[in-house]
Amino acid sequence: MSERKLYSKFKEKITKADPNCWAYKIPDTFNLGGKKPGDFFLVVKGVPFLLEFKSKGGSMTLYQSYQLTDFNNAGGEALEYKEGEETLDEFVEKIIGIVRERKVLTK
User: What pTM did the predictor assign?
Assistant: First the structure.
């Protein structure tokens, strides 16, 4: 499946899981406006995520890996979805689980 279809299906599933989430697909720049840090910004119940999607056989660049690590170090949650390693439903459940865990830890 193309990454564009992955984004679309993911957005449907995450908004079904939490209709109040904020999901923003970072536009492709084709290196004209500089490199982008990832594919998606997502906020679920106040927890910020930076997501990178890879279709089958794809892998992150060093720059993408650096950006996701930097986002984690800043207090966000950075995740990579690799098609074929888990389903989109499992990925959404992983995100919701992280949000639940963070909310429990902050109380």
Answer: 0.88
